Amino acid sequence: MKTTIFAALALVAAPSAFADYRVDVNAVDVKGVGAPLGTVTLAEAGDGVTITPNLHGLPPGEHGFHIHEFANCGAREQDGKMVAAGLAGNHWDPEHKGHHGAPGGAGHRGDLPVLVVGKDGSAKQPVTVHGMKLTELRNKAIVVHAGGDNQSDQPKPNGGGGDRIACGVIQAAEKR
User: Fold this and answer.
1) pTM value?
2) Which sign does the torsion angle of CA 163, 53, 39, 87 carry?
3) How far apart are CA 104 and CA 149, in angstroms?
4) Among 8, 18, 42, 71, which one is least packed by beta carbons within 10 Å?
5) What are phi and psi for residue 38, nearest 5 degrees?
6) pLDDT by 10s per residue, the chain, length 176
7) Cβ contact 107:31 at 8 Å
């Protein structure tokens, strides 16, 4: 009887036991993965995911912020030149829409709101993306770009964010 009660309690508690993903984020450049810059926490939020950065050491201003296809932040050669975090692949686009857009909209599923970095180089402002599920993000990467993001492919592709300057691998949920 006691075993049955404990098993039932474990089943009820299980969904909240692994609710958040904590991602370690590092600086990246064409030489590979560099110094730690902090963490990003991803958590279920109703019909979406809330992404909470706790980052430091970034250039002030707005930066492109995206979920990329692969869980790898290493550099890769592309078109004859090295690309920082190139092994993370492109913006996550499971529906193969093939264009950049507003978060939760008609573009890539990995399109996120811009990351706002303060004058002190820190980013702590949470953002929520509706229509995204936490479990879909496992084995992907989260990437910060050097420039801002205009949520369009014009005048430059993928919002115009440019080089990748930080990256973290989304691997597993942490226990609360």
Assistant:
1) 0.85
2) negative
3) 15
4) 8
5) 125, -155
6) 444 443 443 434 344 444 589 999 999 999 999 999 999 999 999 899 999 999 999 999 999 999 999 999 999 999 999 999 999 999 998 988 888 777 777 888 888 999 999 999 999 999 999 989 999 999 999 999 999 888 777 888 877 789 999 999 998 655 44
7) no
Question: Which phi and psi angles does 122 have, rounded to 5°?
Answer: -105, 150
Which domains does the chain possess? 18-174 (2.60.40.200)
Considering Cα of 104, then 105, then 106, then 110, what sign does the dihedral take? negative
| Rounded Cα–Cα distance for residues 148 and 81 (Å) | 23
